Amino acid sequence: MTLIKSISGIRGTIGGKVGDNLTPVDAVKFASAYGTFLKAGSGKLEDGRKLKVVIGRDARISGPMIHNLVQNTLLGLGIDVIDLGLSTTPTVEVAVPMENADGGIILTASHNPKQWNALKLLNAKGEFLSGAEGAKILEIADAEAFDFVDVDTLGEVTVNDSYMDIHIDEVLELPLVDADLVKTKKYKVVVDGVNSTGGIIIPNLLEQMGVEVVKLYCEPNGHFPHNPEPLKEHLGDICKLVIDEKADFGIVVDPDVDRLAFISNDGEMFGEEYTLVAVADYVLSKTPGNTVSNMSSSRALRDITEKHNGSYQASAVGEVNVVELMKKTNAIIGGEGNGGIIYPELHYGRDSLVGVALFLTYLAGQDKTVAELRASYPQYYMSKNKIELTPQIDVDAILESLTATYKNEQISTIDGVKIDFATEWVHLRKSNTEPIIRIYTEAPKQQEADVLAERFVKELKVISGI
């Protein structure tokens, strides 16, 4: 069982011992640290106004328990809460500035299995905290210097369950989203909501765009029917159902709806890396500009950006790093190769709804099937692997050793180690969310990517002595 404290929040498995897992005590402790951080940065509030925080959660089983603990902790600090109930990560991000709130907390462990949960922390813009802000919250948590209010100044709760509908409305009003055009195509789409909130919001969006929806695992009960990370090896059911239903394509989201993957009409994976590529191709064709993704993402985005005479740059892994570089380079679209679309026209956060709506609009303007659209893009293939870590493994020393070994290649150490060879690359880094080393490779052929990955897995095991 595991508890991971990082600058982006606290993530862990439910149950076990305090400090080793995400127990009720740990949930209260870190909610207290976040609330204390907000109060310290607020200065003197005008007219006696209380701080205000938006809270939403995905449908995982531990959600109600963690939600109650976090919410009541904030109330004890004298902070008002806007409770969205069942929601999505991008929905909470949209709600924070709309509510003029001071921050937000999303209770979700994203793609992690059902035994996990997490507190993901937002600033007043509805964006993830910076590294310095996250580090400060960890300091406050370690010191446990919390000061709760008296009975007359407790926070109050306002329940607002309308924000998933508001989020959909905001997406449909985007200039590059054309629901009327999509309606003329009478698409049929299968949706795998992994029994979380994507099973509510994605079908609702599709139906408002005139799409016939076939629901698969769309009951938000938190019992994930398969590993919730939207990778090919987990998605056999929807791939089969797309063919059986003769659907135009399939849509898969993770439990908090910030990652998006498509299944082509032939039942094959469109490729989560190509979610961003396709959406960016459409956006750049209408509004030329720059793009950003993280350095574990496909080279295909670079190729598409340059086709539209834009400039592409790669950031360190992590949404906050992508957003920071997007702002710096005035990128009009960006994201991560895990299927995360960041479209600043709405907000600076990964958003599956934005991705779905833009993709549908793009597809409706093409005389192609989804499989034909995928085949039109530069062909790269990735292999994504990982090695479980033990406390004895010195990851930094391992990566330094690899850097020395490949010093004559093009190397970046912004985030772990990325080695660019002539036609392929490998990126090795310690995960921020799990006790693992991730090994991502990409090459023009799947076999080449797999062979490169196997090579570096073996090298890592030799160096670490696993």
| Number of separate structural domains | 3
Strand order of the largest sheet: 1-2-6-5-3-4-7
Overall CATH architecture of the largest domain: 3-Layer(aba) Sandwich
Structural category is alpha/beta
The count of strands amounts to: 20
The count of helical stretches stands at 15
- How much helical structure, as a percent, in the residues? 25-40%
Would you tell me the overall average pLDDT?
Answer: 94
Q: Note the gap between the termini.
A: 20 Å
Strand fraction = 15-25%
Instruction: Choose one word for the global shape.
Output: globular
Radius of gyration: 22 Å
- CATH C-level name of the largest domain: Alpha Beta
Q: Regarding quaternary structure, how should these chains be classified?
A: single chain
Please identify which CATH superfamily of the largest domain we are dealing with. Alpha-D-Glucose-1,6-Bisphosphate, subunit A, domain 3
Low-confidence stretches: none
At the third CATH level, what is the topology name of the largest domain? Answer: Alpha-D-Glucose-1,6-Bisphosphate, Chain A, domain 3
For the biggest sheet, the summary is:
7 strands, mixed
Write the layout of secondary structure elements.
Layout lengths: L2 E4 L2 E5 L10 H19 L9 E6 L5 H14 L3 E7 L2 H10 L4 E5 L8 E7 L8 H13 L13 E3 L3 H10 L6 H7 L2 E5 L5 H11 L3 E5 L19 H9 L4 E5 L6 E4 L8 H15 L3 E5 L5 H8 L4 E4 L3 H11 L1 E6 L3 E3 L9 H13 L5 H6 L5 E8 L6 H11 L4 E3 L4 E4 L4 E6 L5 E8 L2 H19 L2
Parallel strand pairs: 3-4, 3-5, 4-7, 8-9, 8-10, 12-13, 12-14
Antiparallel strand pairs: 1-2, 2-6, 5-6, 10-11, 14-15, 16-20, 17-18, 18-19, 19-20
Helix pairs in contact: 1-2, 1-4, 6-12, 7-12, 9-10, 9-12
